[in-house]
Every structure is written in structure tokens, then in C-alpha cells.
Amino acid sequence: MSRRACEFLGLDYKKQRIITCHIGNGGSITAIADGKSIDTSMGLTPTEGLMMGTRVGDVDPGALVYLMKQEGLDADGLSTLINKKSGVAGVTEISSDMRDIENAIAEGNERAKLALDMYEYRIIKYIGAYTAVLGGVDVIVFTGGVGENQLSTREFVCRQLAFLGIDFDGEANKCRGKEVEITKKDSKVKVVVIPTDEELVIAQDTAEIVSKL
């Protein structure tokens, strides 16, 4: 995503500070300096980091111990809870699909609004932290199901981070599922949407490995 974003913007990939936001039912944010990933929000498992469709994201380990004691959970029970019954679905008790959550918010569902607030807060928090780690940011990339299609979340994140030098372009942001820059021409920080193409990257990596045999 970061490499393609730089190609799209006409920038040298190895001279940029980039934060990629792969957000969907699963999600992760990565800090990239001069073409190398230096930090990512996921840990040993995908449960660390962002709040996701059914995964809990960052949580106090003490809270997990408390839940195990209060609910009589064993390790398998806790794993099911933090992987399959938490996140957006756990908070809303409706769905892990953001389209359902947006519809519920439109109908006045407070738990759906809370879940979206929590979801977006984690994204902003990680972008802020990684901006500090990188010593600034040149490019932010949105990808994944939510990143490519949920206009409201992209707009909220960009406007909340305007202090970084993001000059948001509301008209450009109306595009779904396509490569597009959603910041204005003179924006200090460039924000782009790049659809995920994991199959292409796998094919490219395979071709590179085979060529060296």
C-alpha cells in the first residue's frame, strides 16, 4: 500500500514517512520510514491494536484476568471472547459490519454511535502515536473495506488531524473503492485511498523469489 501510494503521488518511496491504515473487519496501522516498516499495531496475534469487527484491540491485561474470574472463563473461553465476541459487534450487539452500524446510527442507536466513536478514536490515537515515532508524517494511506468505502470515517479522521497539516478535500472524498487523493493540492500531509490488492503483491513477491533461484 505504501509503495503504491507513492507511485500514485509521484513520490520517492524510500524518502517518505508513511502511515498506512488498513481498516475493515480486521485492522492494523503501520509506521513506515524510508521504505521500511518500523512499527505496527498488531502484536503476537491480531487482537492487539485497533478495535475491530469482533476483536477487542488494546485492552488492560488486568481486565482479562477480572473477566476470567467473574465469568469463569478458561483460556479457550477468553480467546473466543476477545476474538469473536468483542469489538464493534460486542459493543453494539448488532453486527460487525460497519454498514449495519451506520444504518443503526441513522436510526438513533446509541450503542452503535458509541462503537463508531471508539473505533475512530483508536485510529486517530495510533496515527498520532506513529506520527511522533516517525518525527512527522508525509503520507497517510487508507485501505481495507472501511478505509476504501466509509467516507464519514475518512473525513472524521482527516479533520481531527488537521493540525498535522492535512487539508481535507471533501469533494474528492466522495469516491469509493478507487485510488484517490483526498487532500488538496497544497496539503502538507498527503492522504490517499489505495484499494487493497493482496493477490497482486503475493504474485509479485513470488516472481521475485523465483527469479533468484
Brief overview:
The chain is α/β, with parallel strands linked by helices. The protein contains 9 helices and 6 strands. A hairpin with a 2-residue loop joins strand 2 (27-33) and strand 3.
Q: Would you mind describing this structure in some detail?
A:
- This protein has 213 residues and is α/β, with parallel strands linked by helices.
- The chain has a single domain, classed as Nucleotidyltransferase, domain 5 (2-Layer Sandwich).
- It has nine helices and six strands; from the N terminus they run αβββαααααβααββα.
- The protein has helices at 2-9, 61-71, 75-84, 87-92, 98-106, 110-134, 144-149, 151-160, 198-211; strands spanning 17-23, 27-33, 36-40, 139-143, 180-181, 190-193.
- It has a six-stranded mixed β-sheet, with helices on both faces.
- α5 (98-106) crosses α6 (110-134).
- The longest helix is centred in the middle third of the chain and has 25 residues, at 110-134.
- The chain is globular, with a radius of gyration of 18 Å.
- The model has no long low-confidence stretch (mean pLDDT 95).
Key traits:
213 residues; six-stranded mixed β-sheet; alpha/beta; Nucleotidyltransferase, domain 5; single chain; globular; 9 helices
